[in-house]
């Protein structure tokens, strides 16, 4: 099959033939219909992510149809449409058994994040070498071989080219609001960074019933989209501006919830400073590995909380169907998130667009 492979950091992906094995017990082969390209893919390309290693098939926002199932697979059947979710839980540890599977720290889930199956191997080869699928997904390819826990069946009515976005960006953004911050009706919310993930924080806040949703970005094109998706206030800033002060001018005393969705430690500090006493800031963006978040401890005296998240605290089998319902009922817009659709051969254009920062999401259709 063809796959977009990263061989060297900071170099373009090579679209080439790679080998994929047949699904073993508990494994599913998905024929990818569409895959979004997230800034986390770019972080891996630039070697600034903990999960970065080479050679790696990038992509972790894929949807397609089940091509083949291995022995023992019960939740998916050949031909069914499915989304490849982030961070498949192990299903067996204490956290998984108690329902808190987003906290699963088992070896199975850790391996999954590093692109390995529970046996510590991968099912892909390139030029006779081990090939790693990014976070066990590797969806910028014609096929992805994943654990059953990582794939969730979806209704036929949801087009796969939009459904794929629930693999990461939509689930993370909406989940950061509903699962992590637990935004309450009538709340005030600031969203710093309104790209592929942040726009879904905006949508999540609208779904949660927030009365003020302040969208903050450097790009007018992102603010226009944020407005279409539910933002009530648009704040265009320049890099280095004090966002907390700009937020305080609109909502005196600060907002109930602030989300950093860029991946910049200085902006996590701004998000925290933008909250009111008793409020919460959520770091959704991924700062470079090893960088500290220098918060002023005095802010903590007033019961503020600083939270982080992996994938918006998503439990795939619970959250993907919920998002499909929101979409089918008209409260979640997926169409507006797609700025351009590319072929697999054009995959490097999606990374160029991320660097330029003008578009929301690029979709690749193998
Ligand atoms: N926690 C998780 O599990 C998780 C999941 C997905 C993505 N992420 C991370 O979230 C971050 C965002 O991902 P994305 O795909 O939405 O990226 P993106 O590039 O689509 O969006 C980033 C947005 O931030 C804006 N921005 C840049 N500098 C800014 C500034 N100084 N002030 C205000 N806005 C600014 C950009 O214009 C852009 O709209 C990345 O760091 C990504 O790795 C984390
Ligand atoms: Zn992502
Ligand atoms: Zn577990």
For the report, how would you describe the main beta sheet?
7 strands, mixed
Shape: globular
Query: What is the CATH superfamily of the largest domain?
Result: Medium-chain alcohol dehydrogenases, catalytic domain
In the CATH hierarchy, what is the architecture of the largest domain at level 2? Answer: Alpha-Beta Complex
| Backbone CA Rg | 20 Å
The domain count comes to 2
CATH topology of the largest domain: Quinone Oxidoreductase, Chain A, domain 1
pLDDT < 50 stretches: none
* Rounded mean pLDDT score: 96
Helix tally equals 11
Helix content: 25-40%
**Distance between the amino and carboxyl termini:** 10 Å
Quote the beta fraction: 25-35%
Could you give the order of the helices and strands? EEEEHEEEHHEEEEHHEHEHEHEHEEHEHE
Short description:
Helices cover 26% and strands 27% of the residues. It has 366 residues and is of the alpha/beta class. The strands form three sheets. Strands 4, 6, 7, 10, 11, 18 and 19 form a seven-stranded mixed beta sheet that branches. It has a six-stranded mixed beta sheet with strand order 2-1-5-9-8-3, with no helix packed on it. A six-stranded parallel beta sheet has the order 14-13-12-15-16-17, with helices on both faces.
